[in-house]
Design brief:
mainly alpha, 0% strand
């Protein structure tokens, strides 16, 4: 029995390593992060109704803010997932050896990593306006915009950031 489990574990490891070799390192994550940034920044620019939407005054700040948030969320998620896989390797191999799919074997780790990756965005959303004044809102108020209008733009931006971080971390 022990020899059969050991042989099956070896086969599972070979399947995992061959699956990892098929996807070039980091390409799928980079593509997902880029897609999340482009989609969310485009939606944000459309909703801000800035004319023309492609002007540097609109594109550079929105894309920069969204890209920074996506990169942060993805890096935290991948770090948590990688550490979890290293820590839980024997349990993952045992699940695979017993016939579990990759999704079943890694599901708990993926959910835990996603939760950790979204913590910064959730903290930012919960503190905005109560504990801190976000940079975009502060800049608009200092530039002479009505505080209520600046708050509307900041709420829109925070929602865009939450969607972008989620898309990047899930992808």
């Amino acid at each position: 029995m022990k020899a059969a489990v050991t042989a099956e574990t070896g086969n599972s490891c070979q399947r995992m390593s061959s699956a990892v070799r098929r996807v070039p390192a980091g390409r799928s994550r980079a593509a997902t992060s880029t897609l999340a940034t482009v989609v969310v920044a485009g939606a944000g620019l459309a909703l801000l109704a800035h004319h023309p939407w492609w002007s540097p005054q609109a594109v550079i700040p929105v894309v920069g803010i969204v890209l920074g948030t996506v990169m942060n969320g993805v890096s935290i998620t991948l770090n948590a997932f990688t550490r979890g896989v290293e820590r839980e390797r024997p349990a993952i191999e045992a699940r695979l050896a017993l016939g579990a799919t990759r999704r079943q074997a890694l599901g708990d780790l993926q959910r835990a990593a996603l939760r950790q990756g979204l913590i910064p965005v959730i903290n930012q959303m919960s503190a905005a306006g109560i504990i801190t004044l976000p940079g975009m809102m502060t800049g608009q108020i200092l530039a002479g915009m009505a505080p209520l209008e600046a708050a509307k733009y900041q709420i829109l931006l925070l929602m865009l950031l939450a969607v972008a971080a989620t898309l990047g971390a899930v992808g």
